[in-house]
Amino acid sequence: MSKITRPGVRLAALAALCLWSATATATAEGPAAVDGARIIGADSEPGNWMSHGRTYSEQRFSPLKAVNTENVKQLGLAWHYETGGVRGHHATPIVVDGVMYVTQPWSMVDALDAKTGKPLWSFDPEVPRAWGKFACCDVVNRGVAVWQGKVFVGTLDGRLVALDASTGEKLWDVDTKEGPWPYTITGAPRVVKGKVIIGNGGAEYGVRGYVTAYDADTGKQAWRFYTVPGDPSKPFEHPELAEAAKTWTGEWWTMGGGGTIWDSMAYDPDLDLLYVGTGNGAPWARHIRSPEGGDNLYLSSILALDPDTGRLKWHYQVTPGDTWDYTATQHLILAELAIDGTPRKVIMQAPKNGFFYVLDRETGELISAKPYVTVTWASGIDMETGRPIETPGARWADEPAVVMPSPIGGHNWQPMSFDPETGLVYIPTQEIPGLYAPDKKFAYNRKQWNTGTDNSPIADIDPDIVSGALIAWDPVKQQEAWRAKLWGPWNGGVLSTAGGLVFQGTSDGKFIAYDARTGERLWYTPAQTGIQAAPITYEIDGVQYVTVVAGYGGAYALAYGRAAHTMDMPNIGRVLTFRIGGTDTLPPPDLSAAFPEPPANTAPEEMVAKGSALYAQYCMVCHGIGAVSGGVLPDLRHSGPVIHEAWKDIVLGGMLKDNGMVAFDDVLDEAGADAIHAYVIQRANEGVVPGTPKE
Questions:
Q1: Cα–Cα distance for residue pair 216/35, rounded to 1 Å
Q2: pTM for the complete prediction?
Q3: What is the DSSP letter of 555?
């Protein structure tokens, strides 16, 4: 497709639609026959969902309206597909010409008949289960991209793989990792102008962030943009890094620096700009990675890049000198808004830091920024400078600080949605206090977490101090229009439709439809497991379907223990698809699991205390605060005799490495493993009751 110039949005859209019409016959041949013109013209074929956010603007709004406020109560399950996965399911399915492409944990891909759910093919990239240790926030995958008969998936161990859309056969496979660093990929690729764009995760393990473009036909690297400058004694890879280096101090490059681009992207074909959001620093603590201060560009920023060259056009940093894990990797949405009566092309984001940003997407100029959740680390945004007005004491270099939002954020990766008919953005929000305590004994280790925080003071999280809601946000007035309170945090992404509906799944296992204008709950159905993924909708043979992927998991579900425990039933990964009059049913859940009696608690107090500290340092992020599982991984307090007997073989010997539980013998000795075991046994004997979902 030829480059679209800037005669205006309407002219560009018309040109794209004409090109799409001219090539419609060609692109209709074969599966996943998608190109840029077809994505730009997506509203001409609303029955498909051809890109991650449906369109390049990432609005996640569908023009379909056969399912609407009048008949939504007649929705029933049309079909369901069991993935076999028991970890977090975060994928947005892609549907093209009757075929659905969806990912599951460990970066596996399934192609399904979108009308019936019948499996067509599956692909397993054979990610080494030991690599799960380097996935900060579960072994999840957020979906594929499709382009000209190919399906693209990023793998947890840092590869980008191209598959034949007809068969699932691997066409090419490139390693995106650089050096010996433990990079991951959990985000969905995007394809722009024949280039597959993908970023990486791994900041908690001390990597250096970048985003890379690969040729869709060959897998050859086209360009790479680094978000953090490297060793200044060596030439910088591109000019923007020389300026960025002036905002860093110390020897940050020895610890990677962070700034990973692990999720959000959007593309404006009229302006020909690719937008990406960047992540937190590595370590989190600025006083460690950049001891004399500095903004640390391009951490926690929105970047506008040239998709042909990867060169930076503009940037806006939402959290200068980030020290709270306030990523700006959250969902980016492009829209046109009337600001002071004048139409403006804007980009919108609700990043972790709690402020909702509206920027001019051509220049990066800040238009407005207001808090969408409780914010205590800053009192507001200075509209002259665009910088936050930080609260005294919020930076925790010397003393602990409790601030809001927490590292989980006011809004995390779960996609929000913009409805151009209501003018509202629908955001899955959460209110969670965060305790940040300086780790006085911090030592960098790129094979372990490197946050610079001391987690040992956090023994438990009371479910009553956290909350979650779906809010409708007016981005022009910068105020809340309505709110639907939910059981707690970590709920699913959002879909809005021309049928006047907003769909969202919840962590306590509900799939809900709301009235887009009022927030009234019009319909819901039990999903038997928590939902974090965002729904989609599509149409086949005149019938509208609504699909969501279910399966509890991710950072909050793994780490937040009692507060994250939502359901006392197995975590089952499924694709759930609904239609008006659907008659499928889910099998009843297996609730037969019994909790064995724990061993007697005979260890001395000092051994248990040592185990508590080591658990917080090495185990908490996967097995939960206070050794209470959120329901994703097995609850260690409920381990059977075989686990207790083989404890050191598991923790030090890697006996369960094929399940993702790797050996920790590089940081723990036998005394340390025994101490953690003693702590887990004590917690088991205390009989802590997991939290239960609230209506």
A1: 11
A2: 0.89
A3: H
Would you list the DSSP string of 406-459? Answer: -TT-SS-SS--EEETTTTEEEEEEEE--EEE-B-TT----TTS----B--TT--
Residues 609 and 482 in one domain: no
Q: What is the pLDDT of residues 162-191, one digit of tens each?
A: 999 999 999 999 999 998 899 999 999 999
Q: How far apart are CA 16 and CA 98, in angstroms?
A: 23
CA distance 4 to 194: 14
Task: Convert the pLDDT of each residue in 304-350 to its tens digit.
Answer: 999 999 999 999 999 999 999 999 999 999 999 999 999 999 999 99
Residues facing 83 on adjacent strands: none
Rounded distance between C-alpha atoms, residue 115 and residue 345, angstroms: 37
Helix or strand or coil: residue 629?
A: coil
Number of domains, the chain: 2
**What gap in Å lies between CA 504 and CA 367, rounded to an integer?**
29
Owning domain of residue 150: 112-491
Question: Does 224 map to a domain?
Answer: yes
**DSSP state, residue 326:** -
Tokens representing 479 are 């105020």
Task: Report CA 258 to chain centroid distance, whole Å.
Answer: 16
State the alpha helices, DSSP H only, in 57-193. Answer: none
pLDDT tens across 561-577, in order? Answer: 889 888 878 889 999 99
Answer whether residue 107 is part of any domain: no
Q: Which residue in the list 157, 295, 322, 325 is annotated as catalytic?
A: 325
* pLDDT-derived band at 195, boundaries 50, 70, 90: very high
CA–CA dist 415, 321 (Å, integer)? 25
Q: Is 478 left (phi over 0), alpha (psi -120 to 50) or beta?
A: left
Measured from the Cβ of residue 469, the count of other Cβ atoms closer than 10 Å reads: 20
For 376-431, write each residue's pLDDT tens digit.
Answer: 999 999 999 999 999 999 999 999 999 999 999 999 999 999 999 999 999 999 99
Among the candidates 435, 470, 491, a domain finishes at 491
In a domain, 678, yes or no: yes
Does residue 215 carry a catalytic annotation?
A: no
Asked whether residue 287 falls in the same domain as residue 431, the answer is yes
Tell me 48's DSSP state.
-
Q: Which of 491, 526, 553 is the last residue of a domain?
A: 491
Output the CA torsion sign for 97, 98, 100, 101.
Answer: negative
Token representation of residue 652: 């030090």
Considering the domain boundaries, does residue 386 fall inside one?
Answer: yes
Check if the beta carbon of residue 200 is closer than 8 Å to that of residue 250. no
CATH number at residue 426: 2.140.10.10
CATH of residue 624: 1.10.760.10
How far apart (Å, rounded) are the C-alpha atoms in residues 187 and 161? 13
**Which one, of 128, 285, 140, lies nearest residue 204 by Cα?**
285
